[in-house]
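[INFO] parsing input record for Glutamine synthetase type III
[DEBUG] input buffer:
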Amino acid sequence: MSRNQARVQAVSQIINRKPKEVTMPEPLSKIWASDVFNLAKMEEALSKNAFKAVKTTVQTGAPLDSATADVVAAAMKDWALSKGAKFFSHIFYPMTNATAEKHDGFIITNPDGNAITEFTGSLLIKGEPDGSSFPNGSLRMTNAARGYTAWDPTSPAYIMHTDNGATLMIPSVFMSWTGEALDKKIPLLRSNAAMNKAGQRVLSLMGETEIAALNSSCGAEQEYFLIDSNFANSRPDLLLAGRTLFGASPAKGQQFDDHYFAAIPERVQVFMQDLEDKLYRLGIPAKTHHNEVAPGQFEIAPYFEAANIASDHQQLLMTLLKLTAKRHGFVCLLHEKPFAGVNGSGKHVNWSVGNATQGNLLDPGSTPHDNINFLLFCGAVVRGVHLFGPLLRAVIASASNDHRLGANEAPPAILSVYLGDQLERVFNDIKEGKLLKSEVGGFMDLGLSQILKFERDPGDRNRTSPFAFTGNRFEFRAVGSSASVSGPLVAMNTMLADSLNWIADKLEAELATGTSKPVAAVKVLKELMEAHSNVIFGGDGYSAEWHRAAVEDRGLKNLPTSADALPAFREESVVKLFSSTGVLTPVELESRFEVYSEQYLLSIEVEAKLVVDMATTMIYPAAVEYLSQLASTASSMAALNITLDSGVASAVAQEANAMMAAVSTLSSALEVHDFDSTEAHMQYAAGTLRSLMVEVRGHADKLETLVSDDLWPLPKYSEMLFIK
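[DEBUG] output buffer:
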């Protein structure tokens, strides 16, 4: 079957496709966390002493002894077997945005030749995957292969159901034989510990006596596209690169703003219900789903959870999005910009810090001017973003996210903080050495008796800010759809720990002179604002004026590409930040620069090779075939003394020749491998390779508008985005 025939057949199949038949979901009370070995199930299965020990570990991070681990393992095995599991796996998160797992059976044989099940504490605590075959940034050589997974008891085990059966999944960390972190979980746990230690210092200095362990929390809004699998399977670029490398803009895109929050298509609604049923069984608190801005784009948002668990759940959510979409005849695209000309997909990471005794420390309450603890923690965030903005840009850097940052739907690549009108006034007052009463938002009164009055927020939202305060948390809006939330959380926790330690040092010095706690706090915050208020901005982050002023007047960095951003991992201040807090050693940090740089280069090179291949073997032949048909028709018409306009044929020939000339240049550019440094190689990829890819695409997309529709080999935007 020719490519164009496959496309036509795909459209026919999709038009006649019905939503998948699914059973009505069971009540939430019955299915919630039914596949999770959480504290409630442990309490039923363990002795009182064993459960008390595990609960203390889960809630405080205290060590767990090996005898208790044996008891937990036995109970976990019995529970898993009762759920139909025959295998278990330590699931871990290497330095990619994917998960990794190695499955082992519970089965062993005894001397009599019979099969029995076994799962001991030692098997629960430790696994041993290959430590050199995962991205490691030269931490492990090929001949030094040993790596370890180790059970993280603070994140509950669960059962993963697939069509092939059930598996007990055990969230784990991943390290080398020499002890370096090879994953995204170890730095997250370390960063939370560093933030807790620094936060407790500040709270203690401010007179708090009962201080529970601090923990960061996360709620990540996940955007994604759904494309029918018939279309995706006809697009090599979607299958291999996750985005369309070619595609002319359709007559109708998102310009009518009629997709956002519109009625969800029936087939998509069925998919969402199926997905959420799976999420609820795994204890993932999916709370919101809706149509997003672009046609074919949707969003799911969970409720807040502890950062470590939220990070694990985010990885699981991305896995389930793809698996469930496949069951419903879709392909779920998590690429940040799968379609040019329409909104891309982000992952807005809502982040806060709190504990059981002081509550949410980023909640200002109704009178933020009186909430000194909040002002100190909020000020610490402002200082952190100002000092480590390039780091925040680096932890969201990827070849895919570069397509989105700075575009109309995503914040710019300049890290600034939005506080809102009320808080900005409070901090400006502090900068001037005073702390005045702030105004609340008041009430919304529409003058309609049937609409109840409600309290208005003290400030508007700013969708152009990459790092915005949104009432009781900060929203890091520039994170990419396909990214793990661990990297951003590690950076935010670590910079907060550093700033809290700075504040604690300043407070100690002030208090030692006999200054009262409130006065000392205001003095420290005044010094902080004088040094770091340049990062606070409440205007239009998309405007050209802001881009100029941010760099020239405020000294902020504009890092538009990952090639510009990733070297931040090597900056002396960043190395000191991570080493002083104990989150990452200099060697571990350097390994991350190497891994993420390599992933960036490989992504662009794969796309460039795909551009060459698709242009040469799919698009050019379609153009030539159309020219042949035009020539044949023109010859037949000439025999009848009818002259056809040759403008279209000339345009097709011109664009086809220009495209192939650009393809030749791109092919030659891919052969260049002599670079002085990784940084130089990345700049070459970001500049030369990408510009040549854009040039090839420009000609190809023009051909799509010229070549006869029945000859065009690739599903078009108008089909993929609108036919559901």
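[INFO] The first strand starts at residue 36 and ends at 37.
[INFO] shutting down worker
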